[in-house]
Design goal:
This protein has 404 residues and is mostly helical. The protein is 75% helix and 6% strand. The chain has 15 helices and three strands. Helix 7 (143-200) packs antiparallel against helix 10 (260-281).
Length: 404
């Protein structure tokens, strides 16, 4: 498949530009016709190095995948053929990138590919876990059941992501407001007050001199500081992407942060155990499920631990022994896995572990949020107190001298 940049006309006569993968211009024209577009011209898109230049590669919103799984499961459960189901979904979806992706999936299935093979050709929309589960559902003849389970797993991930955003949104808003207020004060307000203080000809307190010095520094070098900070951030991100060892150490440092590190670890393990339990219950072997699930943890240090656990299982260790050896889980969790292995109910044990971590994450985030809000209020109060004292003390001295 080659990504094409095209220009087409829709049913209302409007010019539409976009990108679509196809084997040739003829196939591109057929795919656009299924989208009720008439091709004007098209050419292979240049494969630039920068991902933001390829908008058709953007990752799909999780809600789109949830709706896709739910509606496809309903169609298949009702006995609608898979191609007809996908065509109906393609025509109903309003997300332009996903609509083009579904057009490509339909064309692949019409060309003889299975659903899982067609999905694998669009890794920007469907990751390895999704494709592996669909393949297992196809082999077992339980595709609607697997799609229902994937939809439920995506909903749990969405809920966990919402809990995570609850931590970040409030501190981010407060930090932006504080920085904006301090920036305006240092750039516009403090210089005017400094002229007033200097014209009075009286000695200034230490905190006032520090505030005026900071204001002068920000006015002189503020733009350079912002540019240097942005450049340093981009350079650090580039180094993380190119040096796996640095990335592993940095991710390990994030997991060791007070409060936030433990919440992040539990969040990663909640997502991993949920996906691992889903894949195991769908008939995927432990080694294969572990190899696929380790790519979704989003943390190099945790991925390294899962890889070491996988190598231990390949050498003949049990699941609980392998996890205990790399100290990924607390003893309570490894004991639950050990009981599941001994009783032959490992899928139930994995589901219990997933529930344990999901509940733990929710409770930890609620506790952290309850502690963050008053802490930020105290910090904001201290900053305002420092600024006000630096400003009001000289004004009080001026007013006192005028009365005398």
């Amino acid at each position: 498949m080659t990504p094409f940049a095209y220009r087409a006309v829709d049913a209302r006569g409007r010019i539409v530009r976009g990108h679509l993968e196809a084997g040739s211009l003829t196939e591109l024209e057929k795919r656009l016709a299924r989208l009720e577009l008439e091709l004007l011209d098209g050419k292979p898109a240049r494969q630039g190095r920068w991902p933001w230049r390829r908008p058709w590669r953007a990752q799909l919103p999780r809600r789109e995948l949830i709706n896709f799984c739910f509606h496809l499961e309903q169609f298949l459960q009702a006995g609608v053929p898979i191609i007809d189901s996908l065509v109906d979904l393609r025509d109903a979806i309003r997300h332009p990138g996903f609509r083009e992706t579904l057009a490509g999936i339909v064309a692949s299935i019409e060309g003889g590919a299975t659903l899982s093979e067609a999905l694998e050709r669009h890794p920007h929309s469907f990751d390895g876990v999704f494709c592996s589960l669909v393949r297992a559902g196809e082999k077992a003849g339980e595709l609607p059941t697997v799609l229902r389970a994937i939809s439920a797993a995506l909903k749990r991930d969405d809920e966990l992501a919402a809990f995570t955003r609850r931590i970040a949104i409030y501190p981010a808003i407060v930090a932006l407001v504080i920085l904006a207020a301090i920036g305006v004060a240092l750039i516009h307000v403090v210089p005017e007050l400094a002229r007033l203080f200097h014209s009075a000809g009286q000695p200034l307190p230490l905190q006032t001199r520090l505030l005026i010095g900071l204001s002068d520094f920000v006015r002189a070098y503020g733009s350079l500081l912002v540019a240097a900070a942005v450049a340093a951030l981009l350079a650090f991100r580039h180094a993380l992407s190119r040096q796996p060892d640095l990335r592993r150490r940095f991710d390990g440092f994030l997991l060791r942060l007070p409060l936030l590190g433990e919440v992040r670890r539990r969040l990663i393990l909640a997502r991993f155990t949920g996906l691992f339990a889903l894949m195991y219950s769908s008939g995927i072997t432990i080694v294969d499920a572990l190899a696929v699930a380790e790519d979704v943890v989003g943390n190099a240090a945790m991925k390294d631990g899962l890889q070491r656990a996988g190598r231990g299982i390949e050498r003949g260790f049990g699941l609980s022994e392998a996890f205990a050896a790399v100290e990924l889980f607390p003893p309570l969790v490894t004991r639950m896995l050990r009981v599941g292995e001994s009783t032959g109910a490992l899928d139930t044990a994995l589901a219990n572990v997933s529930y344990f971590y999901e509940r733990d994450v929710r409770e930890a985030i609620e506790r952290l949020q309850a502690a963050v809000e008053p802490a930020l209020t105290v910090v904001l109060g201290l900053i305002l107190l420092a600024v006000m004292s630096a400003v009001m003390l000289p004004i009080y001295d001026i007013v006192t001298r005028m009365k005398l």
